Amino acid sequence: MNVNLPANFGSAVATFSPLGREAVGEENVESKSTSFKSVEEPAKTAASQPHLGSDRANDLSTTVSEQDQHANQQKDAVERQQQQDQQLIQRLASRDREVRAHERAHASVGGQFAGTPSYEFQRGPDGVSYAVGGEVSISTGGVPNDPEATIAKAQQIQRAALAPADPSSQDRAVAAGAASLELQALAELAQQRRDEVLSSKAEEAEQRAAREADNEQVEKDQSEAEAQSAISAEEASQQRSDASDTQVNLLRRLQDIGAVPIDNAPGELLDLSA
Prior knowledge:
The chain is mainly α and 274 residues long. The protein has helices at residues 9-12, 29-33, 43-110, 147-161, 169-256; strands spanning 118-123, 129-135.
């Protein structure tokens, strides 16, 4: 863009005079004797240089602070994780003790009817396997043809199922099943004893009947013996009577023929020996 300046523009330029000073050639005596004062730098200009340096320092400080904050956050996260791991390990260790004590109680009280404990494990943050579950197998069947042994077994199973300090629902179910088995065995035992009593009474009745039969036979034999004895006695008496009659008749015949004196009374026995 062209700018047309007036012809006399050069003469129109005012003489340069510094701030506070007269123009060159126009200064007065006072102004000549006044010393020149350096121009002071505006405050904001002087402060601008340190301000720029301060911004860089603040930027560096901010960067360092963010790094420290990030490091602290990472450190806190690690510490929190370590704390959580430690808490988990403590819980697993506590659970391990509880599970093992629980299953040992079952096995110890169950005795011959209980098996060896088996466990379910969980690996902890420390690499150790902890028991978090377990079980013990146990025989719950009755003893064949022996209700008394079945009752004793059922009672032991109940004690084994409820042996831990905190029986589980499964433990209580096993105990309930053993209690039912005990009731069945008690009923069987009661019936068995009733049968034994009835059998004993029947046996006693048979024995009593046999004794009574024996007594009747003895009495019968005695009666028959007494009857036979009476018959024998009667026969002997008859025989004696017949013998006496025979002697009397013989005596009479002898008297009739004069072989025996008539003085002998009838019925006297004759001594026929020479």
